[in-house]
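WP5 quarterly update. Target: Radial spoke head 1 homolog. Source organism: Regulus satrapa. Length: 231 aa.
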Amino acid sequence: VAGLCQARSWERFAPLVCQEYEGDRNSEGQRHGFGKARLPNGDTYEGEYERGMRSGHGTYRFKNGALYTGNYLENKKHGKGVFFYPDGSKYAGDWVHDQRQGHGEYLYANGDTYTGEWVNNKRHGQGTYVYKDTGSKYVGCWVNGIQDGPAELIHLNHRFKGRFLNGNPLGRGKFIFDIGCEQHGEYIQPMQVKEIEKEEEEEEEPPLPLEPVWKVSEITKLTTWVPQEEE
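Structure tokens (predicted):
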């Protein structure tokens, strides 16, 4: 293992970077091929390099206990890879320029799981979230990490089909019960009741938004549900 101090092009005006590196190099002396490196902060990398940068398949171990194994492109996680986080959670799937993006599965520290589409590190697009404690699962659309759009919320013996907005059901939908009936209705957003203004105005925190309330319209026999029938 040899010590290495060099100024990289993107660190032209920064102090020299000192690292330990053992591995292949090209004719220009750049890391190229397979190698092992220990960074100044205690992190380590073992894998492929291309013209001085992590490119190809490799394993990066963080000093805090996190670990990434997968593909790199120009020092960034890019392609397929698995990231093990210090809290015990794990993501396995697609990466684009260090971001969870594409399709992937995330196992959360509390046992919940999400499998579906990602954009910029957030759940975005179509995906399924399973709650470990209850076994319930949300199957539908996500926008910037929040349940938003057409979806089903499936429980042990019944399910709800409708639309979500900012994480809550809103608008028309129906509950489908395994006993053989459906309850149609609508989730309505309650209005905030404004208190009578006092003579001396006092600064108060804005009220928290009220959760939508379910209003039943009818109960019918169980009908065959085809996804294309409703938006």
